[in-house]
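Q: Please design a sequence for this.
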């Protein structure tokens, strides 16, 4: 993969990323960055964020550098049909600009106005998402995205 991937939600967590990629992620570099013209909000009834256009904001995230094509395929599966991979310009923490890819909102429902915070998400939702993601990513290569999405929506630990 030539362009880095800008992530702004749960994939900023190395443990979640390793779960999704099904491998150690020591070779993946995470560079602090932000995407101008967007803010992060929590999706209704979900623990993860989406970006909504807002010229007054710059949404923080990370650039994932060093992903393979196979890694990106697994991440696309993880993100599901709701998001579309699109090009973007990001600001790196060092002040430079970079071209990247990110998952755009696509056909997502209208968001809440509640902001999404990474540290709060890690504290309150990460453990459950890792368990859910392990079960979901076991579907990779065995189910279509539509079938896997149904599985995701119906996942229960009971």
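A: Design:
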């Amino acid at each position: 993969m030539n362009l880095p991937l800008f992530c702004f939600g749960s994939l900023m967590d190395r443990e979640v990323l390793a779960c999704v990629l099904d491998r150690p992620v020591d070779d993946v570099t995470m560079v602090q960055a932000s995407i101008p013209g967007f803010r992060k909000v929590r999706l209704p009834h979900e623990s993860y964020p989406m970006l909504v256009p807002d010229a007054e904001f710059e949404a923080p995230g990370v650039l994932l550098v060093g992903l393979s094509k196979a890694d990106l395929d697994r991440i696309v599966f993880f993100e599901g049909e709701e998001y579309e991979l699109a090009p973007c310009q990001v600001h790196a923490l060092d002040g430079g600009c970079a071209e990247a890819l990110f998952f755009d909102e696509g056909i997502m429902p209208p968001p809440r106005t509640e902001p999404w915070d990474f540290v709060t998400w890690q504290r309150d939702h990460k453990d459950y998402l890792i368990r859910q993601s392990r079960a979901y990513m076991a579907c990779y290569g065995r189910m279509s995205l539509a079938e896997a999405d149904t599985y995701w929506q119906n996942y229960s630990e009971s």
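Q: Thanks. Anything notable?
A: The first strand starts at residue 5 and ends at 7. Residues 5-153 form a domain with the Hypothetical upf0131 protein ytfp fold (CATH 3.10.490.10).
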